[in-house]
What we know:
By secondary structure, chain A is mostly beta strands. Helix content of chain A is 0%, strand content 50%. The radius of gyration of chain A is 13 Å and the shape is globular.
Amino acid sequence: EVQLVESGGDLIQPGRSLRLSCTASGFTFVDYAMHWVRQAPGEGLEWVSGISWNSGSITYADSVKGRFTISRDNAKSSLYLEMNSLRAEDTALYYCAKAGGSGRTVYFDYWGQGTLVTVSS
Amino acid sequence: DIVMTQSPDSLAVSLGERATINCKSSQSIVYSSNNKNYLAWYQQRPGQPPKLLIYWASMRQSGVPDRFSGSGSGTDFTLTISSLQAEDVAVYYCHQYYSAPYTFGQGTNLEIK
């Protein structure tokens, strides 16, 4: 059974940093690209960032480019999101999502339960 | 960026009746080399993460009931629930994965009439 478990969410002040983690199990982690998708309270879904299986291809939404860094550790089946210079508008539930296939097959076939990031003074 | 626009924003359908949700992309999301539409549909029940229903515009994900179907090509797509069940109450999102940034529709809230 595929499982994605996010952690690291917290209440944090604007301008500070936070690191999210996602631990994967139930599939061969190294074979798939992974992504972060967020959802602000009561709002829709926003793709944040994605990373290929070997970290050779990394993409970001413009809203987080230059502030967030995605990474992965295939030996630990783990995905990370380093978030710097946090803003109130970064407040959201952050989901870890597995890509459904290789290359450009970037639909998300499994999602974690999410970890909540609240940016407020 | 490719803008995804769903209609309607909300929908109330009687149990057993058909529900139809539309999604329009601001540009074609068909990749010429494979003629595939890079469009997925998700269901999000209250308090739950999204669940993949449909990918490649019309391929049903394993385990998804066959009352769910996807259609369309190019810029216009449709999710149809042929006979609404109580457990289908949710918000539905379309999603283009043709090019980054990968964008979602604003969501359609489906309720029971």
